[in-house]
Design a protein that fits this description.
By secondary structure, the chain is α+β, with helices and mostly antiparallel strands. Helix content is 20%, strand content 30%.
Length: 174
């Protein structure tokens, strides 16, 4: 969904992201996916997931500022999720806070972590990816922290090169 649009994967596409349907809204609840301006997006367009209904919180206890950041007009709550709707069903595509914006591209931290975990020498499940804003460009630098049992400098340097190669291949950019 890099370009903000979810399309069906072609058969055999091993690089396709797979998203599982979360189903439809519960009775008496509403869901919608909106852009940054709060406008409802058409099907298969990725945006912020908003919902409202009997289970929606009234806000944070004694924290009006946090409550204001959470609630949107007409009683909708911003879930903090990136999502899209296809054939009336909801698909969660990630967390807004897990999005790294680099050079105008939306990169999902979990995808970067998965790719880095495939590098020989990296401990499985022991990878974190995040972005740090580069003040001059306004873009984010991708940072990857990966655990290894390796202690020799040469060995760690080789693991670093493998991580960079795996992530570059996965996201299609250095």
């Amino acid at each position: 969904f890099e370009q903000g649009h979810a399309t069906a994967a072609k058969p055999g596409d091993v690089h396709a992201n797979v998203f599982v349907s979360s189903g439809r809204a519960l009775p008496e609840h509403e869901i919608k996916v909106v852009n940054e301006a709060g406008e409802t997006l058409p099907e298969r367009e990725v945006g912020r997931l908003l919902f409202r209904g009997p289970s929606t919180t009234a806000g944070y206890y004694r924290n009006e500022e946090a409550t204001a950041a959470l609630l949107r007009g007409e009683g909708f709550l911003d879930s903090g999720d990136l999502a899209y709707i296809a054939d009336g069903e909801l698909f969660i595509a990630g967390r807004l806070k897990d999005l790294i914006i680099r050079g105008g591209r939306n990169l999902v931290a979990a995808e970067i972590e998965e790719a880095a975990s495939e590098a020989e020498g990296v401990r499985k499940g022991c990878v974190a990816a995040f972005g740090i804003v580069e003040p001059r460009s306004g873009s984010e630098q991708v940072v990857i922290v990966a655990e290894t049992k390796a202690t020799a400098t040469e060995e760690r340097d080789a693991i670093e090169r493998r991580v960079i190669e795996k992530v570059t291949n996965a996201i299609g950019a250095p």
